[in-house]
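Budget justification note: compute hours in this period were largely spent on complex prediction jobs such as the one shown. Inputs:
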Amino acid sequence: MEKFDAIVVGAGPAGATAAYLLAKAGMQVIVIERGETPGSKNVSGALLFSQVYSEIFPKFWESAPLERAIVGHAITFLGEQTSVNLDYRDLDEGHVPHNAYSVLRARFDPWMAQQAEDAGAMLMPGFTVDKLLQENGRVVGIEAGGDALMADVVVVAEGTRSGLLKEAGLRTDEYHASDVSIGVKDVIALPEDVITNRFQCLNADEGVAYTCVGHTGGVEGGGFLYTNKDTLSVGVVAKIDAVYKSKLQPHAILNEFKAHPFISRLIAGGEIVEYSAQAIHRGGVHLIGQLYGDGYVVVGSAARLLLNNVMTLRGMDVAVASAAAAAKAILAAREMGDYSHTALAGYEQNFKATNVYKDMVTFKDTYPLLENERLFHVYPELAGAVLGDMFTVGAKPSKKGLKALRDDMRGKVSLWQMLMDMNQIGKGLVR
Amino acid sequence: MKIVACIKYSLTLSELKVDPATRELRLATTPQRVGTIDRNVLEAAVVLKPEGSTVHGLTLAPAGAREAFREAIAMGLDDLTIVDSTNWAAGGPMATAAVLAAAIQKMGDVDLVVCGEASDDGVTYQVPPRLAERLGWPLLAYARNIALAGATLTADRDLDIGMQSVACDLPLVLTVTQETNTPRRPTLMDAVKAKKKPVVVWQPEADLGLSAEALQAAGGVTRIAQEGIVIARKEQLFQGDDMKALANQLLDALLAEHVVAE
Amino acid sequence: MSARTLTLDDLLGLDRYEIDEEQSHIQVDQSRCQRCQLQPCLTVCPAAVYVVTEGEVTARYENCLECGTCQIACDSGGAGGITWRPPRGGFGIAFRYG
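Corresponding output:
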């Protein structure tokens, strides 16, 4: 029977990072990926934040297939016929890497898997791992299509849909629909120069990212629009329980978002070239899943490691950070010749020492915001109405901001409620 | 015995797009993979393989595409030879046959060559017969129910008019169809083992002595015209509650387009 | 402006699938679905894989985008009638962009 030092299940960012680091340290690693190529099953927005990547893959921006450097982030509130846009731009052209890049996963993930292969890992795309093999309560290998493979340690990196641990009776923490969102996305083709001009970019290497609130069919969630080289990624993310209560199908919510005049102008003339979807765990420090056990570690989205602070939703770099923390623990376990859960416990300590984990702690109070329906139903409309009152010279006498605000709030939200919400936003994002 | 399976790195036709304005085929952005017919080729070669024999893959492809052949090797090849087409200017079935023949001669002592009846993308049906001609071997095309007894191969030829049962002594060139067999799906173990199988890259000129001029002289096709078909949808929509009126409107439109006749 | 809004079938038609003709990766337990009040699968699936035909919930598995939403919605909002497993290796959705 074939035996490896480590079996990695899944060739996404988490799996590829673990495989890369373990192979680089001289371990015999096999990566088993169910897609016909790495990335062919994977969907993100997708924004890649550079910091963690550059620590593991120095100068990744020189060879990785990136779309555009994100030099602008905007938060947009969409009312029925209004938009209020807070548009941040980093106009310093000189520094690399940029804070973030847009990527398309089917193109980017193969690059990551290639790094692992170049380091000596064996990549096996096109095979679905059916189950984890156990002996005396410890994971000793995997089975795929009737073939068994053994290893000292198994790295579970199969993403949000992770089902192997549950079937092996090793996972006790169940998903709940209110903790998971459904993301749907259109990739829309537009000529490169049209995108560059329309989004006020200097050239085809620069791009922007919009995070939008409001106009998602009355369902709690948000929209996004990211610029790629010659495509736009346009999608909505909404809580699963909110979606089924609304009886609105996800693509209908996406259509409503795209029909908003602010968005429809940005995507005008484009041709949809792909439709995709992904379940997204809301993540956060309170909901981190099981990370390790006897003979295995769980990394990336499979361990529910995500960070959502309303403004950005980070999955890929969190996955990379967790995989690096796990790889470090595995290499230490290898020194001791012991892969029991006590030996692998270093993974959790390593992860808690990362900035990613510290960010998760920092934004732990942001999560109640995602539950606050006024954020989705009332304030986007209100923002547009107040600014509308202030800018508009009409038949009625003009109002100052506060007066406009009080008038526009009437019947929608009480002053007390709004102060409470401001406090919640402050606690989640500001203080 | 030495069996060679000729396989092709083909365009994925389901992914082929046509530029609506120029009707040009967007070949450069069409992904390529080992053809579906080649799975039948590999299956036939592996199944026929007698005890103590070897099956060798042979392809004309860019050396950079070697990863695309993983599954083909896992189906049961002992090794794969890629004749590098990276700097390949010549095109067409004549030049391809010349390259394959030169490679087979270089391999030496080959008893049987298995090809697909026609490639997934070119679909010319020309390479196997031209290859047989160059090797000076018989061609046994469209084979089913293939069996090997010593140095004699028997098969039923699937012809339009019926089946023709034939027996032929080796060496020969055999072609198979998608009906010949059901290709196996390699297991994970097959794929792991395939990782250790050698992949050899030959250069047409350095290793086979075939210069661009020689290939041109072999009688390459020098110009190929191809245009995609663009279907302009009229997207006429008939709406209303009166089904009879709607049906009449539809009928009128179809008559006007000469889709149906009076 | 786009000429018209694409229907869901149009959208799914843009995607590339390797369809497993031999087996479905989704199993539906009708006895559970029959007593399911909410039937969240009918709404949440982004590919409308789940449809009611002749009183039974059926899965048009060949359209599945493999997002995993149905299983979560069914387990926590439905009656647990859906068993979703990844398709066999190499089969199912194959994103070109992702």
